[in-house]
Protein 1
Amino acid sequence: MQKKFKTKVLSCSDEDIKIAAQLICSSQVVGMPTETVYGLAADATDAVAVSRIFVAKGRPSDNPLIVHISSMSMLSDIVEEIPELAVKCAEAFWPGPLTMVLPKKNIIPPVTSGGLDTVGVRFPSDETARKLISFSGKPLAAPSANLSGSPSPTTAKHVLDDMNGRIPAIIDGGSCNVGVESTVISFDGDAIRLLRPGFVSVEMLSEITENIIIDKGVLEQLALNAKVSSPGMKYKHYSPKADIYIIKSDYDSFVRYVNENKQSGDAVMLFDGEAEIDEVKTVFYGETSQQQAQRVFGALRECDEIGAKRVFARCPSTEGVGLAVYNRLLRAAGFKLIEL
Ligand code: TXA
Ligand code: MG
């Protein structure tokens, strides 16, 4: 029988990041901290390395990867054209949690872009991620480091829970600051099209242009055969084993609803400071939208740890980064939203 190997945990020291960079340069996949969530990084220009990411995650091959850079010169190496609006967004939000979809150069192989002629590019602010890119001298393709369909990982432990034995190493950079994945945008003439909400909010993008289109796939469940602007919108996402329901109401109505419907195996996701409900397990997920962003994926994983079969979640605010929290929960819930 083949012996299962263990994933090596590296620190954020330059020495360890150089070990990770050597792995990248030999077509391997490494778990990488970023300010949003952990990523599974490999050389974006190396088709063999990138195909290993898809295997480790169990990801459908038509779902493209985001390519991470650590300098603006890397951007012109990988994209054909940088529209004026993209330059403005880069000036305002890079380095940081914003991904821009741009026409790709041939140096990015089809396996990285899911066969599309565009590539999503992000210049992360996390120092360790930037060092890993610089030390390896390559743009790094990196999807979130979870098994396909599971909640994204915001600690090295989450990554190990999903990836132990599937990748050679992970760099432990502690908890991710933002907690939800980057905002993804594309450019539609003079407009910015929001494909995935994140920390860089609609309100923040409005400082660049008023002309913002929120893609239908952000808040609605698309039909199975619908044409999507971003392949990730098609797939079930962020789901724990439990069946999640979002309840849009005030706290008192929420409690009444749970008490009227509760069964054994139920749990609730409450905001910090709210009173627990008798006979129902509780997972707290922050008070402010920023805290909720940091905690939502960990909370979804915790629902599995406590063995919840069904979870009723308080509905987050949709302002600022709250829209990202709402979008992730809605997907985790398979769009099951109950308005009281
Ligand atoms: O914060 C993040 O973006 C994290 C960290 C690791 O950087 N990465 C991440 O990657 O969330 P992933 O693969 O889990 O999500 C990428 C999303 C997918 O929904 C994908 O469909 C979309 O971005 N995407 C990537 N390239 C695209 C493209 N060329 N056109 C449209 N959507 C694209
Ligand atoms: Mg993901």
Protein 2
Amino acid sequence: MATLGARIPATTDHSRARRYPGGMPTREPAASVTLDGFELRVLHIPLVSPFTTSFGTEAVREVIVVRAHTPDGDGWGEIVTQSAPLYSSEYTQGAWDVARRYLIPALLDAHTLAPEQVAGVLAPFVGHRMTKAGLELAVLDAALRSQGRPLGGYLGAVRDRVPSGVSVGIQADPSALVDAVGGYLDEGYVRIKIKIKPGRDVADTAAVREAFGTIPLQVDANSAYTLADADTLAELDRFDLLLIEQPLQEDDLVDHAALAGMLCTPVCLDESITSLKAATDALALGATSVINIKAGRVGGYLEAVRIHDLCRDAGIPVWCGGMLETGIGRAANAALAALPGFTLPGDVSASDRFYHRDIVTEPAVLEDGHVRVPTGPGLGVEIDPLALEEFTVARETVRR
Ligand code: NPG
């Protein structure tokens, strides 16, 4: 049986022991589970306020929740696609279709398998990483719950809470942005990320720097620029940013490397890092010096751990990105962000940053600028069945 430990990039026990004198995270494989069926639901969850990025504005989070049925209990996952293919090529209806038509039948055919085998079973189907990630998480949660094991311990978490950064959407004008950032700082968020796009970059960043001095600050362009904008992006160098995230297109690795050579601000890739291979290539090309790890974007939490391991061994800082997750993905992200290589605060904010009501009974809260890593079995959070029902707009169960 394939194990997570066997799949991560090779490092010698000796080098690991040196890095972790207190003992290595275990990463024992999870139990096998017997898959009887999967329930898929599309949820529409209203956001506390509209969220604007360079690719659009959302007022309602459309997301797919997955429930894996096994004789030993259920497991939960989340497919973080959005309603339209604007951030990446994936989107709700595409995810729904590929899940029910191809991915779920393949998993049900395998019938009994360990979570570490899910990616291999789904590998013949090209792409659709967010969908694969959601299905894998549901299987992983079912397996770990059956063993009474928390996800954090399984992934290799070394912290019981993680520093919480917040992502602030593009506002009406720089002064509204300053108000929004001020509110999050008052709540205790330890790092601010602002969204930028052409025409809403230098003045917005300057306004935040001027208003709040030396706070940890970074910007996210969501692929809105080209190499021809290098001079504008170089103007951001004077703001001493932690990083600039994904200035160019997803497949612009060579251009990102060229841009990195023109900027003092570290370039961080998000959209471009779709797998361990993509991360390896981006680092080899010098296209990035920091990586945003999102489990959905890379096909699951196990691939996310492999990218973490690669970067840790290469001395590359990583941080955990966010996709406006419900309490399901938020709990899993907190577990992932507690791994030792996550040396920068991530977009692991409190549930109330986005939602008045979450679908779990203990939504993530901000405590002294941190979010706790759940300690219960599996995800460590329980589904609130009434909230789940309230937000469900479509459902289907696929059985063996
Ligand atoms: O805190 O969950 C969060 C949101 C962080 O800005 C954030 N996410 O480009 O990283 C991003 C952006 C995003 C959200 C992208 C949803 C795609 C979908």
